[in-house]
Amino acid sequence: MPMLLIKGAYAIVGTSPDGDTVHFRADTPAEWDFVCGPHRVKRNSEGRAKLRLEGIDTLETHFTSHGPEVSQPPPIPAQARKALLDWVGFTDVQWGADGTVASTVPASVPGFVLTRGADPDNRCIAFAGLGTHPAASGTHVNVDAALLRTTLNYQQISSGLAYPMYYQTLFHDLRDELTAAVQQAKAAPAKGVWAVDQTLTGASVTGMSSITDTGPTAGGAVIYPKLFRRLVEYLNLGDANVAGFPAFLDQKADKFMVLSTGQFTTGLDAVVEVSGTTVKMTRPPEDLVFQEA
């Protein structure tokens, strides 16, 4: 899969990284303009942009949608963030009272990104690399399974700290490699999220606190972050009764394909069941390939 390589450094002071997003400063800021697709990469005057790690989705450490900021139940969200920071090479990260990074040791870490585009929020969708870069910055390199396995993305998913999150722009050979890592992480003894995940078995959703880290039932259900975000949006409408959740999902009209059937569909209600207070998905995350909004 050909991808644009951009050389630079990870630099996170003043930002709020989590397990699947981190900031990266390009050595040559103009190379962000080489990223293809309908969306431009947003960056500051120093060439620092936000990366959304390709192919993965970690539990939310801070999510806001028409309501208070919420997080998914501990401790895995924080573990995924720490794993990202450790992998990059930050040995000391100090956090400010506002939840952003106040200082790091070292101040930045050299690396490179591999990308084919940006998302609607103008974040660069990328595989994150360290060490010797396999091609000149600003040129394209073929990303195969061997190179994929050296990336932060693969590290997060193989350690069980991330769910798969596939979009149509990801070639099937890399997707298959990530799915193989998912299956290994799920195998007994299951790692990370897979030891506690309730996405397919069903989560009892009786209000916001049943799926977040706050409230009387804090530490509740761990579920696929995409499903979590949609539930938060629904619950912020003011009704804790999830009977209306399928209709809400139909209105949100997420477009995706179910790999096992080859079926293209619109609306997560096609793969979500609600029975009483129990919400579950009928297909695993690695069986879904989404169309970017």
Uncertain spans: none
SS content category? alpha+beta
* CATH class label of the largest domain: Mainly Beta
Strand content: 25-35%
Which overall shape is indicated by the principal axes computed on the Cα atoms? globular
Mean pLDDT: 95
Query: In angstroms, what separates the terminal alpha carbons?
Result: 22 Å
- Helical coverage, percent range: 10-25%
CATH T-level fold name of the largest domain: OB fold (Dihydrolipoamide Acetyltransferase, E2P)
Number of helices: 6
Shape-level CATH architecture of the largest domain = Beta Barrel
Order of helices and strands: EEEEHEEEEEHHEEHEHHEEEEE
User: What is the tally of beta strands?
Assistant: 17
Please give the radius of gyration in angstroms: 19 Å
Strand order, sheet with most strands: 1-2-3-8-7
Q: What kind of sheet is the major sheet?
A: 5 strands, mixed, barrel
Number of domains: 2
Report on the structure:
This protein is α+β, with helices and mostly antiparallel strands and 293 residues long. It folds into two domains: 2-186, OB fold (Dihydrolipoamide Acetyltransferase, E2P) (Beta Barrel), CATH 2.40.50.90; 197-290, no CATH class. 20% of the residues lie in helices and 26% in strands. It is built from six helices and 17 strands. A five-stranded mixed beta barrel has the order 1-2-3-8-7. Strands 11-17-13-14 form a four-stranded mixed sheet, with no helix packed on it. Strands 12-16-15 form a three-stranded antiparallel sheet, with no helix packed on it. The longest helix has 15 residues, at 172-186. The radius of gyration is 19 Å and the shape is globular. The protein starts with a strand and ends with a strand.
